[in-house]
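Contributing: when you submit paired examples, paste them exactly as shown. First protein:
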Amino acid sequence: MFPKSTQAQFWMFENEGDLNILRSKTNVAYIESHKNEAPAGAGDGHFLTEQDEADVVFYFSVKMGEFCDKFKPPMPSYVKGTSSHYFKRFYLHNSVMNYHPKEILVTAVYLACKVEEFNVSMQQFIANVQGNQERATKIILNNELLLMQELQFHLTVHNPFRAVEGLLIDIKTRCDSVHSVDSFRPEIQTFLDSVFLTDACMIYAPSQIALAAVIHAASRQKQNLDSYVTESLFGEQGEEAILHIITCVRNIRVMVKNIPDPTPNIKTLCTRLEQCRNQDNNPDSLAYKRKLEELVDEDALLLEDHTPSNQQARMDSLECRQR
C-alpha cells in the first residue's frame, strides 16, 4: 500500500519549494568541493547554476521519455514511470556536474526494466542505444550499483496507472452520465507523460495524479465528472476532503500546463557541463581510467590475500613466531 511504502515515507515532499531547497544545496555543495578546479579567474561562473542544472535535468527527462517511447520491444508505461522516478530522485542529492544525465538516464531505464520485470537482456536493451554500444554497456554496469545506493535501495515505485484503471472501472459502474469512458485513454496517457516532466510525482500521491489525469481527459472530451467526484467518490468523506482533492487536482493540472519549453541554449549548457563536470566520473577522462585501475588493483590484492597459499603462509609464519 502506498501510504506505508518507502516512496511515501522517504520520497514525498510538501511542495516544489522543498525540492528546490535540496537541489540548491546539492549545487552549492558541488561548487564548494570543486572550486579549486576552476580555471584561474573563472570563479563560480565556471560552474552551472541551480537553474542551469534544472534546465539540463529537464532536457534529459524529455530525452528519457523519447527513449522509452521508441524502445523495442514496446516498453510498458509503468516502466517509463519508474525510470522517471529514479532519475528525479537521483538528482535531488547529486549534481549533473558530478554524474552526467545521459549516463544516469540509460542506467535508470535499465534498472527500471529489471525492477518492473520487463524482461529484456542487456543485448536487447543496448540495441536501443545510439552510438558506441560497448561503451554504453560499461557505463550502465558501472553506474547501476551507484544508482541503487543513491536511491537508498528504495526501488519499489507506485505509479498512477493502476489507480487510473480503477477509476475508469468505477466511472463505468457508478456514473451513468459519462459515456465512452475508454475514449479517455489517449488523453490520460498524454497527461501522465507530461506529469513525469514535473515534480508532481514527488508531491502528490499516485491516486491524486490518476484522478487529475482522468478529470483532464474527461474535460477534453467535453464531459463533466464534478458530480462523480463530489458525490460518488468523496461524498461520504465530508467537505474538507472534497476541497483537499479539488485543490490537489487543480495544482497538478497547473503544473502540467506550466511545463516550460526546453531552454534554447541547451547546447551551450552541455558544453559548459563537459568543462566543469567531475572528471573522476567521466568515462572518457584519464582520471576515471586511473580510478578504475586502482579499484582493479585493490580487488586483485584482496583476492591474493584470500588465496589458500597465502593464508597458509600467514599461518606458518604465525606458528614460527609462537615457537
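Second protein:
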Amino acid sequence: MTSATTRRSAPLLETAAITATITAAFALTLHICSVRRDRRLAEAKLAQLNEQRMAERTGRIRAEVKLRTLMKNESGSNASSSNKKGNLLQSQDGADDIDNRLVCIGKVVSPFTKRMGCPRQGALVPNARGYIQLSIPEQTVEGMDSYSHAWIIFAFHANTDRPDSAKTKIRPPRAPKGTKVGMLATRSPHRPNNIGLSLVKIVRVDAKAKRLHIAAFDLVNGTPVYDIKPVVAWDIPGHHDNQQLQVPSWVSQEDALQKCEFSSRASSELTQLVARGSLAPLYTEANDGAAGAKLALGEVLAQDPRASSKRGSSTDNPYSLLFGSLTVEFVVGESSVTVLDIKPAVQLVDEATHVDGIPLLGLRR
C-alpha cells in the first residue's frame, strides 16, 4: 500500500515542481521586463534632462551675449562722453571686466599689513615669509614642489583710487626729481586694471592644507590671488638669446641702507611678542621666530620705507610701520636704520582686526 501510494504521488510531485519552476521563470521574466522598462524610462528621462540642460545653456549663452553687447555699447558711449585730457580713456571697443571675469583662487597670508612697509620688489626681502591659502581643490598644486619660483597674478585690493582716474604719466618715487614717464613704463599699482604680477620663491607645498608657502614677495596680507604659474627658464631674459636685461638707471641704482640695528629693548620686545603668537603663524617659537622676523624687518627697513620726499635724508625723528600686528618704531641715519621700539599695534582685547581694510596678522580671536 505504501508503494502504491508513492507511485500515485510521484506524478503529483513532479507536476508541482514543474509548476513552481514555470512560476519562478515567469516571475523572473516579469522582473527582467520591469527592469528593462525602468531602464528605458530612465534613459528617456535622462535624454529629456540633457535636452533641457542644453536648451537652458543655449538660452544662458544667448542672454549673456545680449548682455555683453549691451554692456559694450554702454561702455563705449560712456568712454566717448567722459574722456578728459590727461586721464586714461576707457576701451573704445567696450572691453571691460565682463569679458575677463577673474575668480579668486586664494588669499595671501603675509606679515605686510599696509602698503608702507611692503617692499617694492619681493627679491629685496628674501627672508619675508608667507603662504597662499588656496580655495580650490588640493590637486591643483600637485607638482608645484618641482619648481623653485612662481608668478602670482593678484589684485591690488588696497588701492584707494579709481581706475578711471589714473593719470597717463607717473613720477616714479626713485627717479630723478621732475621725471615723469608713461604709466605702463612703471611698476605702479595704480593702473587701468588693478591686476598685479609678482615673482615669488616657492618654499614648500602643503597640499593637504591647500597652502603654497612662499618667500621673497611683495604682497600685503589678504591679497586676492587670481592665478599661479610656475617660472620656467624661458621667462628669464637672456636665457635663450644671451640678450642682457635693460632697465632705466633709476631702476637699477643701489640705494639700500647699509645696516639695520635693533636696540636691546626692541630685540627683547620682539622675542616676547613672538612667544605670545603676535606674528603667528609665520614667525613662531616652532621655527626661527624672532630671529627670522628680525631678518625680514631688517631687509624691509634697509629699503627706507619712508615717503620718497624723506628718503635719502637722516633725522632723529622716529617713524613707524606695521609688521604683522606689530608697530615698529625706527630712525634713519645717513647709511643705517635703527629699530627703537616694537609693540602691539592693537591690544589683543580690542575688536580691531583690520587696518585700512587689510586684516591684521597674529591676532588671537
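If you have annotations for the second protein, write them as plain sentences, like these:
The chain has four helices and 14 strands.
Residues 2-82 form the longest helix (81 residues).
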